[in-house]
Amino acid sequence: MNQTTDCVIVGAGLIGMLSARELLLSGMAVTLVDQGAAGKESSWAEGGILSPLHPWRAFPAVTALASWSQAFYPQLAAALQDATGIDPQWTPSGLLILDPQEHGQALAWAGETGQTVQVLDADACRRLAPGLGFLPAQSLWLPQVAQVRNPRLLKALRQDLVQRGGLILTQTEVVEIRQRGGRVQGVRTPQGRLTSPRVVVAGGAWSSRILQQAGISVEIEPVRGQMLLYRTEPGLLSLIILQDQYYLIPRRDGHILVGSTMEYQGFNKVTTEAAREKLQQAARRLLPALADYPLHDHWAGLRPGNRRGVPLIGPVPGIDGLYINSGHFRNGVGLGPASARLLADIVCTHDEMIVDPAPYRLS
Question: CATH number of the domain that 273 lies in?
Fold first, then answer.
């Protein structure tokens, strides 16, 4: 395999595929390369909530990407369904946060951003979500928060890319980012070379390893997150529930996701009994009826941890034509569309960009 393309994207997860779609729409020929299967790492393992869990805790640069993505998701989901017949199931579920100690900060954030945050008492919460177990005297209701069913989103994206002429090479490891005279030349794989004047690293938790091949160091590390899935009756829960670090996400067909742990265990995706028990206890405390339903699945994914709190999007200093779009931690689905559009704005040198690119630069 020795091919030439306008852009190589290393990593075929959600960020890589969304970036590829934006560049294809800009008229580029794009090839995605992934060491595994497309969209089967953290993009698949996530819950699909289209907001940071406690959005007022996020940096303004994260809020900017989240707000743009939230507004764009309905048309993205509709376009993908029209093109592929696969419904990503964008659903405005709303988010009920059972953490009463942050009301002042949440309301101040709502005033600054224009987002809707309501303070509800326990009786109002029971009317909104009958069957809840744990209820503080007051909770926060964010009715504008939506979700997508991320495995369906990924499936639709992959089909859309292929229909648009994108090439996706799976089970293909990048063993070298080729460069000459401070300019990227493409990548080398065990199957051959891909020659390109542009390379985008969107390898999720593996991005640091990939960039090391070019002598670049970035502080992106794997953070394991374990989740559970219950199969219940449709309508048992209709909105997203969050209490501390634990959340319940209802799907349209009655499945309920329970998340999530946050573990610094390197590249170890093994699930543990201790995490399962902790998640089950949290789930049954929030929604006692789950004790009557069997546990359907338990899995783990590796998030691209980034301790600075803001994803890395833009050129890699010192190597012309090399870019990064990674480090989204637990917000890859929620920030993905805006991150991809910003990356395309930068790569294509658009005069106007959706947000100021400065906060996302790799220094």
Answer: 3.30.9.10
